[in-house]
C-alpha cells in the first residue's frame, strides 16, 4: 500500500512538472528567446532513451506552436511572416537537434543534421530582415492568415502516436514541415519583399521534398 501511494505521488509530481514545462515553453514571442529557451531545455534532457522520445519531441513541437500563437501581429505581412517563420524554424532546429543526438536511423539523422545547417542559415536571414525592417501597420487579415495556416498541423498533432525518437521525428517533423508550407503559401499572395518571397518559395519546395521522404520512411517503418 505504501509503495502504491508513493508511486501515485511520483506520478502526480511528474505530471505537474510536465505542465509547468509546457507553460514556460509558450511564454515568449521573439524567435531569439524561443530558440534559446528550447536549447536550454534540450541541454538538460537525457540521451539514449527511446521510450522518452515521443514525449520529448511532442513537447518541443507543442512549445513551438504555442510560441507562434502568442506572437503579436503588427499588420505588416512581410514583418510578421519573417518573425513567425523564424520562430517556426526555431522549433525545427530543436526537433532536429533531438534527432541528431538520439536518433538511430542514418537517413533521418543525416536529414536532421542538414536541417540544422539550412534552417539556421534561413533563420539568421529572417532575423536580419526583422532587425532592419520597420513594420508599417496595415490590415491584419493577411497576418492572421499566417496563424490560420497552423490549424491543420495542430489537428495532426492530436492524432500523432508516440514511439521511438526516429518515428516521432519523421511523424512530427512531417507535420511541422506541412505547417511551414501552409504558412509560406498563406504569405505569398500579399508578399512585398522580393527576398522573403524567394525564401517562401524555397521553403515550399524544400519542405515538400523532405516531407515526402519522411512520409515514405514512415510507410516503410510502421510501428
Task: Provide key terms for this protein.
223 residues; mainly alpha; Ferritin; 78% helix; 0% strand; globular; disordered N terminus
Instruction: Please indicate the percent range of residues in DSSP E strands (runs of 2 or more).
Output: under 5%
Mean pLDDT across all residues, rounded? 80
Distance between the termini: 36 Å
CATH architectural designation: Up-down Bundle
Q: Please give the largest β-sheet.
A: none
Q: Please tell me the total number of domains.
A: 1
CATH fold description: Ferritin
Nearest-angstrom radius of gyration? 18 Å
Low-confidence spans: 1-40, 42-53
CATH class descriptor: Mainly Alpha
CATH superfamily: Ferritin, core subunit, four-helix bundle
Strand elements, count:
0
Structure description:
Residues 37-128, 149-218 form the DUF305 domain. This is DUF305 domain-containing protein. Keywords: Signal. InterPro entries: DUF305_CopM-like, Ferritin-like. With 223 residues, the chain is mainly alpha-helical. It has one domain (2-220): Ferritin, core subunit, four-helix bundle (Ferritin, Up-down Bundle), CATH 1.20.1260.10. Helices cover 78% and strands 0% of the residues. It is built from 9 helices and no strands. The protein has helices at residues 2-25, 31-43, 53-70, 77-102, 106-132, 141-148, 151-158, 165-187, 194-220. Mean pLDDT is 80; it is low at 1-40 and 42-53.
Amino acid at each position: 500500500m505504501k509503495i502504491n501511494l508513493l508511486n501515485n505521488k511520483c506520478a502526480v509530481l511528474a505530471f505537474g512538472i510536465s505542465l509547468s514545462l509546457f507553460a514556460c515553453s509558450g511564454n515568449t514571442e521573439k524567435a531569439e528567446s524561443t530558440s534559446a529557451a528550447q536549447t536550454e531545455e534540450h541541454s538538460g534532457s537525457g540521451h539514449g532513451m527511446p521510450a522518452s522520445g515521443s514525449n520529448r519531441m511532442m513537447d518541443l513541437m507543442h512549445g513551438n506552436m504555442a510560441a507562434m500563437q502568442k506572437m503579436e501581429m503588427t499588420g505588416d505581412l512581410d514583418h510578421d511572416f519573417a518573425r513567425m517563420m523564424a520562430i517556426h524554424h526555431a522549433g525545427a532546429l530543436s526537433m532536429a537537434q533531438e534527432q541528431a543526438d538520439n536518433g538511430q536511423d542514418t537517413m533521418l539523422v543525416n536529414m536532421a543534421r542538414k536541417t540544422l545547417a539550412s534552417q539556421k542559415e534561413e533563420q539568421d536571414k529572417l532575423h536580419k530582415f526583422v532587425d532592419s525592417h520597420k513594420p508599417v501597420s496595415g490590415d491584419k487579415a493577411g497576418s492572421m492568415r499566417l496563424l490560420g495556416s497552423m490549424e491543420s498541423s495542430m489537428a495532426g498533432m492530436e492524432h500523432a502516436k508516440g514511439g521511438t525518437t526516429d518515428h516521432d521525428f519523421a511523424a512530427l517533423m512531417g507535420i511541422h514541415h506541412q505547417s511551414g508550407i501552409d504558412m509560406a503559401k498563406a504569405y505569398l499572395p500579399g508578399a512585398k519583399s522580393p527576398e522573403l518571397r524567394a525564401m517562401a518559395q524555397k521553403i515550399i519546395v524544400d519542405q515538400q521534398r523532405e516531407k515526402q521522404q519522411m512520409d515514405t520512411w514512415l510507410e516503410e517503418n510502421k510501428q
